[in-house]
Amino acid sequence: MTRSLSRFAVAAWAAGLLVCPHMAQAQDNPRDKLMPRKDGQSACFRRDYDAAHLKANPRQATQTILISLKYEGGNVEGVILRVMMKRKESATPYYMIGGCDWGEHKYPAPETTRILGNARHSHGLDCIMLESRESARESGFVAVDFSPDMQTAVAMSSREVAVWHGFGDSATEPYFKLGRDDIVFKLAPTDVTACAEMERGIRF
């Protein structure tokens, strides 16, 4: 009886040597900590600009930007990106939506390097924005890079993207032009509840 238990203990210990490193690797992955790869899981990033910043950068129209990254439809490699922008010229926020793939970013944009330096995650999100939720027509792109710990995100968009006011598609502007000071944003994680209304309002 003792010998059988000893064999069982040795076998369990050996199995642990094989399994534990993989488990530890998954637990130590900053991406999986921020946003576990499971349908319905999401991460939320935000940036608010105060009056002093906007006064010092008069060409920037964006006052607040909020982005949601969410796994949907059972695909845990692709992410749905939702963006909300509050801007000076509009009392109603602008919204965007797109689909993203996670991939290696060998050659980051100069703006990303300026913000994150060489200490950046080797992979990021490449997102194709959609003209509307009912249309597969593409309208602009957004790339998202991260710091190694995923606690800083840099979102960079094309100058021309599709946006709409509110949660209805009736007010879609498929070729909305962003100024040079409104295409690169440094953001930090915030509680996922901050993105909940946007995720409910903009269905994919």
How does this model look, in words?
- The chain has 204 residues and is of the alpha+beta class.
- The chain folds into two domains: 32 residues; 167 residues, no CATH class.
- The chain has five helices and ten strands.
- An eight-stranded antiparallel β-barrel has the order 1-2-3-4-5-6-7-10.
- Strand 5 and strand 6 form a beta hairpin.
- The N terminus is likely disordered.
Proportion in β-strands: 35-45%
Order of helices and strands: HHEHEEEHEEEEEEH
**What is the number of domains?**
2
Strand order, biggest sheet?
A: 1-2-3-4-5-6-7-10
Helix content: 25-40%
Q: Main beta sheet, described?
A: 8 strands, antiparallel, barrel
Flag low-confidence runs.
1-27
Distance between the termini: 59 Å
**DSSP strand tally:** 10
The number of helical segments is 5
Q: Provide the residue-averaged pLDDT.
A: 82
How would the global form be characterised?
A: globular
